[in-house]
Design a protein that fits this description.
With 245 residues, the chain is α+β, with helices and mostly antiparallel strands. Helix content is 15%, strand content 33%. The strands form 3 sheets. Strands 1, 2, 5, 6, 7, 10, 11, 12 and 13 form a 9-stranded mixed β-sheet that branches. The protein has a two-stranded antiparallel ribbon with strand order 3-4. The protein folds into 2 domains: 1-95, Pseudouridine synthase (2-Layer Sandwich), CATH 3.30.2350; 99-217 and 234-245, 2-Layer Sandwich (Pseudouridine synthase). It is globular and about 50 Å long. It has helices spanning 34-41, 83-94, 179-186, 235-243, and strands at residues 4-8, 12-17, 52-53, 59-60, 74-80, 99-107, 114-118, 121-125, 130-133, 147-157, 164-172, 212-221, 225-230. The two termini are 31 Å apart.
């Protein structure tokens, strides 16, 4: 289960990460990761980027990793191949100039064709990590401002259970942990087959993981030219689109 290379030059590597592959070690388990794959394929990248110290005190290398996707999320990722490129990309993520577009299957039919979710996100459980939106009057937790735009691509239903499903294009304007998953749950349309934020709901359209895919990312390449990269849809997404009725 290796990433697919979408684009590569002397400065960056753009990949399509398969669902189920962790980006880097979480400090608790030992398993194959994007970071491990990067070092095996590009040994010179071992010193690029910044390491992470886990809650267990383990120093975890993150060669060239500027941003991450959840283990269960597939799609486009950008890896820096030099420290200069790393710092350049890191600044873009920090100032929110990077544009990210996801696709997601969600439960139910959205009432409108487009929308914006603006709700602060708080951590509500540590193990496993879980997040939620700020409740009225809540003061004691650290709140993280978050904005997510969305639009409907398709409306349909699961062919076996006849439960309503929507396919969305989702554009997070901030980069909070689990942001898309938390925001869609907050508006009562959680992502199909999400074990954290759609508990008790059946996995529709044949999905066995949260139906979330990072489709496009737009970044600025040196010296100042913007470029958009696209990660092709995985098999479970292609099958689900065909099965929707």
């Amino acid at each position: 289960m290796n990433p697919e290379i979408i684009f590569e030059n002397d400065e960056i590597l753009v990949i399509n990460k398969p669902a189920g592959l962790i980006v880097h070690s979480d400090g608790r388990t030992k398993e194959k990761s994007v970071a491990e794959w990067v070092v095996q394929r590009y040994p010179g990248l071992a010193e690029v980027g910044e390491a992470w110290v886990s809650p267990q005190g383990e120093t975890v290398p993150r060669p060239g990793v500027v941003h991450r996707l959840d283990r269960t999320t597939s799609g486009v990722m950008v890896i820096a191949k030099t420290q200069t490129a790393y710092e350049f990309l890191k600044e873009q993520f920090q100032n929110r100039s990077v544009k990210k577009t996801y696709q997601a299957f969600v439960y139910g039919h959205m009432k409108t064709d487009t929308g914006i979710i603006e709700a602060e996100i708080v951590r509500i459980r540590s193990t496993p990590p879980r997040w939620g939106v700020k409740r009225a009057g809540e003061k004691d937790k650290k709140h993280r401002h978050a904005i997510t735009e969305w639009r409907v691509l398709m409306r349909g239903a699961d062919p076996e259970l006849n439960e309503a499903v929507s396919l969305l294009e989702v554009m997070p304007k901030t980069g909070r942990t689990h942001q898309i998953r938390v925001h869609l749950k907050a508006v009562n349309h959680p992502i199909v087959c999400d074990p954290l934020y759609a508990t008790g709901k059946p996995c529709l359209l044949g999905f066995s993981r949260p139906a979330l895919h990072a489709r496009f990312i737009t970044i600025t390449l040196q010296p100042g030219k913007q470029k958009t990269f696209e990660a092709s849809l995985p098999e479970d997404f292609l099958r689900a689109e065909k099965e929707m009725k």
